[in-house]
Design goal:
The structure holds three protein chains of three kinds.
Chain A: H1 2-20, E1 26-33, H2 40-56, E2 59-62, E3 65-75, H3 83-93, E4 97-99, H4 104-117, E5 121-123, E6 138-140, H5 145-159, E7 164-170, H6 174-190, E8 193-199, H7 207-215, E9 220-222, H8 227-239, E10 246-248, H9 255-261, E11 268-272, H10 280-292, H11 294-299, H12 308-327, H13 332-339, E12 343-346, E13 349-354, E14 358-359, E15 364-370, E16 375-382
Parallel strand pairs in A: 1-3, 1-4, 4-5, 5-6, 7-8, 7-9, 9-10, 10-11
Antiparallel strand pairs in A: 2-3, 11-15, 12-13, 13-14, 15-16
Chain B: H1 15-37, H2 43-68, H3 75-90, H4 96-99, H5 114-136, H6 141-160, H7 165-168, E1 174-175, E2 185-186, E3 192-194, H8 199-216, H9 219-229, H10 231-236, H11 241-267, E4 269-270, H12 277-290, H13 295-312, E5 321-322, E6 325-326, H14 334-349, H15 367-377
Chain C: H1 2-33, H2 40-56, H3 61-84, H4 92-114, E1 119-120, E2 130-133, E3 136-139, H5 140-162, H6 164-174, H7 176-181, H8 186-212, E4 214-215, H9 221-234, H10 239-257, H11 259-265, H12 279-293
Antiparallel strand pairs in C: 1-4, 2-3
Helix pairs in contact in C: 1-5, 1-8, 1-9, 1-10, 2-3, 2-4, 2-8, 2-9, 3-8, 5-6, 5-8, 6-8, 9-10, 9-12, 10-12
The chains are: A alpha/beta, B mainly alpha, C mainly alpha.
Chain lengths: ~375, ~375, ~300
């Protein structure tokens, strides 16, 4: 027995030593994204953007030396309890910058580990204010939920002309709960009335919630839930012949959601970061790249429609490279300092950071699901006056 | 498992006990020294911190399932209570407004030192256990299992209810409370002088496990084992079933609560959503792998379990190349498949687990004693 | 008022029927082996995943449905042979732990195969159609489920009461050892039990996933637990009991989801109370109440404990 223990300890030491011994001229970027769980589909699309960017620009000039960028992946499983070990796996790999995550809860849960190790993180589509609030190492390149909630409330109240909204969120999902909260504030301030409910994780029967919305006379059904739940809500709403429009946040902007909506006759609106066609060169490039890699096409949900989060992932990668160049070193603390001054114009617009680490964004795109073609159609650009 | 274990009560410290104490001492020393000399970012420390937490929870579950024969599946629920009690009581007042962002800073407007909170975390869990135990401890084996499992689910739902959000923060994350990393001693610039973040959880878990061991070796412990081996006979011998079951249940829950608090300190954030039945199953599997009825086994298997799932098997989740040959099957999720097959193998073919019902000192006792034990069994 | 309650009642009856089909598997296995087959909910989920992959491979529906049911029954059989049979003489706790291990393994296998992403269940013509009842619309499957469930249950009860294997099953569940001595081939009886249980779970999965459209590795856990609660509620070991229990639980659960609305419409409450948070927990509360008040369930037989 003692021998076994001795061997285990020796093995442990060896493993740790090999891990810390790093090859030269490689800079590691951590990709902290869900590849499984409720947000897995979205996480994979966001990762695609990063991977495509890496294939476009695989090296970076840091302090006069050309470094190869190596992507290190960690699956945070879409849940706050799997987040710590994923975050620590990245930290132990010695990454210089972390990109991600899709989903605010996992970003918040992983954040202290990056802080402890002095590694900066660039959020790609985590919109909850708590991600960047009160720290100096977490950044984000997307807009925030108070903004998005207001945009959606304005759109619902003014453009769709509805006065009575039904809100649905998943229990314990920071993103859902936050976004419905801000929507409610804005919508009630405009003079609307709101009924709000939550459902336990793992629910697959949404008919009761849809019935409730119907009975309470809701004119819009706002459920900014993850893709897994949104597709179920759409197909069950279709079976009920729901008359009210469905409204979603940026998570709904997925080809999977549009696909389920095909042939249903439902009205579905979402707010999002990017509209395909916004940067034709990028769209063409990533489509060609996906079509050449069957695995990537599968990760994108089977077709080559460009998700907004892929564009965001692409931009985040280049923001990280800009920061590395500006820092002139791969040392994560220096990179952290450098991110504050990054000014980068990406495919999703201009990115510059302001306190507490959020990109200055003042527009959101509203899209609607085309139930004939299975695509997202552009509706309008919405901002808060 | 059926035969009564011979209680070995050495008058003087025998060699085996001394070796055991020495080994434990070395482990603690190593935990301290390694953390000072190795890079703090190593996965080793993640494994050690989480392992210590799971070791305590597994031992507390073993006290019920292995030593008292009460098949309870409520562990995750008691851990949840411990985590929440700890987090709610220790979040610094200044941070409450940002944590309880939708509830105007919440109801609780004070904060306690971590040590007090960790004891209270255990006490709250034990109190709940007492209330739950009154009705359910009368139930037999599988009914008890399913009832405790049900209670864990009910507790989870209650803690997610947004009408008591001022206390629990609804279903949202609790965070910014003291964590293991806060035990490190730092200078003004934030540079760490002495690392304690692994040693402290080791000490907490060690003290708690030592207490459980003392309980097991006391007259209460003998009564527990008697109940496990034959409830009717134990009752006939004058053992108060209700009282002893309740003591075991509450003690186990107390330490599950402390374990929950440790889990919160490890994970930096707490959310009711993560305390699912899957967590209870995981702990149960740790107990089974270690050997039902062995504290040493539970501790060892907790570390092995955590190390395998978080660290050693992680390479299975990524594509690997050996030279130019791409290893087949490897992709996200394969780690868990291999892991569950290992567990099934243990459950089916090594039912004794790592230790059976032996403890660490038993390994160093002379062979013939063990042989004698085996002979009696046959 | 009735208009308010009707939609919840409808989905309750439909869910209840699906729980019933799973609950039968639990109750039969428990009746014979005294084992809570924790893996049963996962067999139900595996049936869903099988359907996704089989129909994706282009096999037409009239072949894929029977194929799914046969393979599911095979999975149940295999689980029994691999994970439970070797432990027949082991303590009961060991078999239950083995069941938990199987559940863990099945979930992880499916996680690996699907990559942890939701799989879209193929839509089956006719039963996924919409129909309108009164003021509400629902899927055809909502109406078919209770009817199909009752037909299957009646067939099963006939099988148990009027065939040789049924008699053997009753004998084994009454007294395992004695029936062995009477020359009943225990293993055959157990095999048949698992095959029937898994087959019904397969039928349940077709109905359930047609209604809710996506499958993921954890899809079986909650329905499985609820079906088990239904089995205990109705008196474990009793097939009609499990069915009644399942309908009660399905209906209660959905009424609870609509409780806020019903209260508001009835003028008893002004705002949403968040009762839906407890829609899962309520099932367990019901379980604990029944265990304390009447541990044998609604239709369970009283058992005396032998010393």
């Amino acid at each position: 027995m003692r021998k076994i223990i001795a061997c285990l300890l020796a093995l442990t030491l060896v493993l740790t030593l090999t891990m810390t011994a790093m090859a030269e001229d490689i800079v590691k970027l951590g990709v902290y994204e869900p590849a499984s769980g409720d947000s897995g589909a979205g996480g994979k699309q966001e990762t695609l953007g990063v991977q495509y960017a890496n294939s476009v620009q695989p090296t970076v000039e840091i302090g006069g030396v050309t470094y190869t960028v190596q992507l290190v992946y960690a699956d945070n499983g879409s849940s706050a309890d799997k987040a710590p070990s994923a975050a620590q796996a990245l930290v132990s790999e010695g990454v210089s910058v972390v990109l991600g995550s899709y989903g605010s809860g996992v970003s918040i849960a992983g954040s202290p580990y990056f802080a402890e190790a002095g590694i900066p993180a660039i959020g790609i589509s985590c919109t909850n204010p708590q991600v960047t609030a009160g720290n100096t190492h977490y950044f984000r390149i997307c807009f925030l939920d108070p903004f998005q909630g207001t945009v959606l409330a304005n759109y619902a109240y003014k453009t769709l002309g509805v006065k009575n909204a039904y809100l649905l969120a998943e229990l314990g999902n920071e993103y859902d709960v936050g976004l419905t909260h801000y929507f409610q504030q804005a919508f009630e301030a405009l003079g609307g009335t709101v009924n709000s409910e939550t459902f336990p994780t793992g629910t697959s029967d949404f008919t009761s919630y849809l019935n409730t919305a119907n009975t309470l006379g809701a004119e819009v059904f706002f459920a900014p839930v993850s893709i897994a739940y949104s597709t179920q809500i759409i197909s069950q709403a279709a079976a009920m012949n729901a008359s009210f429009p469905l409204l979603g946040g940026d998570t709904w902007d997925s080809n999977k959601v549009a696909e389920v909506a095909t042939g249903t006759g439902l009205n579905i609106f979402v707010s999002t970061f990017y509209q395909e066609g916004g940067a034709p060169e990028f769209d063409a490039g990533i489509k060609e790249w996906m079509n050449a890699n069957p695995d990537m096409l599968t990760n994108n949900g089977g077709n080559d429609v460009v998700a907004a989060v892929s564009a965001m992932g692409y931009d985040a990668y280049f923001v990280a490279l800009e920061a590395l160049k500006a820092a002139g070193t791969t040392d994560s603390k220096a990179v952290n300092e450098a991110i504050w001054d990054v000014n980068y114009t990406g495919v999703s617009g201009a990115i510059a950071f302001a306190e507490p680490g959020d990109a200055v964004r003042n527009v959101a795109y509203i899209k609607t699901a085309n139930t004939e073609t299975g695509n997202w159609d552009f509706v309008t650009v919405q901002s808060v006056e | 498992m059926i035969q009564a274990q011979p209680t070995i009560k050495p008058k003087k410290l025998d060699a085996a006990t001394i070796i055991t104490i020495a080994i434990i001492g070395v482990v603690y020393l190593l935990a301290f020294v390694l953390e000072q000399v190795m890079p703090a970012t190593s996965m080793l420390f993640t494994v050690l911190k989480k392992g210590a937490t799971y070791a305590l929870v597994a031992v507390s579950m073993n006290l019920l399932n292995g030593f008292t024969g009460l098949f309870s599946l409520g562990q995750a629920g008691f851990m949840l209570i411990g985590s929440y009690a700890f987090a709610i009581l220790t979040i610094p007042v200044a941070q409450r407004l940002s944590v309880y962002q939708y509830y105007d800073g919440g109801l609780v407007q004070f904060s306690l030192p971590w040590l007090v909170a960790i004891v209270l975390a255990g006490l709250f869990a034990a109190l709940f256990a007492f209330l739950i135990g009154l009705p359910v401890l009368r139930l037999k084996s599988d009914y008890l299992a399913i009832a405790t499992l049900g209670f864990a689910e009910i507790i989870r739902a209650i803690f997610q209810w947004d009408k008591i959000g001022a206390l629990t923060n609804g279903s949202n994350l609790l965070r910014l409370f003291p964590t293991f990393a806060d035990f490190n001693v730092r200078d003004e610039s934030g540079q760490v002088l002495v690392y304690w973040s692994t040693f402290v959880p080791f000490v907490i878990a060690g003290v708690c496990i030592a207490f459980i061991l003392m309980l097991i070796n006391s007259s209460y412990g003998r009564a527990f084992k008697a109940i496990r081996d034959d409830e009717t006979a134990a009752e006939a011998m004058g053992i108060n079933l209700a009282k002893h079951k309740m003591i075991a249940f509450c003690t186990s829950s107390f330490f599950a609560g402390v374990g929950g608090a440790m889990l919160a300190m490890y994970a930096n954030s707490v959310q009711a959503k993560s305390f699912t039945t899957a967590m209870t199953y995981e702990i149960l599997l740790i107990v089974v792998i270690g050997g039902i009825g062995s504290v040493t086994g539970s501790v060892m298997s907790a570390f092995l379990f955590v190390a395998s799932s978080e660290w050693w098997l992680r390479f299975l989740d990524q594509e690997q190349m050996i030279g130019a040959w791409k290893v087949p099957l490897l992709r996200n999720g394969f780690r868990l498949v291999v892991f569950s097959l290992i567990i099934m193998a243990v459950v089916l073919f090594f039912r004794q687990g790592i230790m059976g019902s032996r403890e660490l000192p038993d390994l160093f006792r002379k062979r013939h004693k063990l042989a004698g034990k085996g002979a009696r069994k046959a | 008022m009735f208009d308010t309650v009707l939609p919840y009642l409808l989905s309750g009856i439909s869910v209840g029927g699906q729980y019933a089909l799973i609950a039968i598997g639990y109750t039969m296995v428990y009746g014979i082996l005294r084992l809570i087959n924790f893996a049963h909910g996962d067999v139900f989920m595996v049936a869903g995943i099988l359907m996704v992959y089989i129909s994706a491979s282009g096999i037409p529906l009239y072949l894929s449905i029977p194929l799914v049911l046969i393979i599911t029954a095979g999975v149940g059989f295999a689980i029994e042979r691999v994970a439970y049979k070797p432990l027949r003489s082991a303590p009961r706790m060991s078999i239950m732990i083995s069941a938990i291990g199987v559940s863990y393994t099945l979930q992880n296998l499916v996680l690996y195969v699907t990559g942890g992403l939701n799989q879209f269940y193929p839509s089956i013509p006719f039963i996924s159609q919409s129909v309108t009842i009164g003021a509400t619309s629902t899927r055809m499957v909502t109406l078919i489920t209770p009817v199909l469930t009752l037909v299957l249950v009646i067939a099963l009860v006939l099988l148990i009461n009027h065939t040789k294997i049924g008699m053997a099953m009753r004998a084994v569940s009454k007294d395992f050892e004695t029936s062995r001595l009477m020359g009943i081939k225990i293993d055959n009886v157990i095999t048949v039990t698992f095959v029937i249980g898994s087959f019904l779970a397969g039928v349940g999965s077709i109905l359930y996933f047609t209604n809710y459209s996506t499958v993921i590795q954890t899809s079986g856990a909650m329905p499985g637990l609820k079906a088990f609660v239904a089995a205990v509620f109705g008196g474990i070991g009793s097939v009609p009991g499990a069915v009644v229990g399942a309908f009660i639980i399905g209906i209660c659960e959905n009424l609870l989801k609509g409780m806020d609305t019903i209260l508001i419409k009835a003028g008893l409450s002004k705002s949403m109370l968040g009762i839906t948070t407890f829609s899962d927990a309520f099932t367990f509360a019901l379980l604990i109440v029944i265990l304390i008040v009447k541990p044998t369930g609604l239709f369970g037989e009283k058992q005396t404990e032998k010393v």
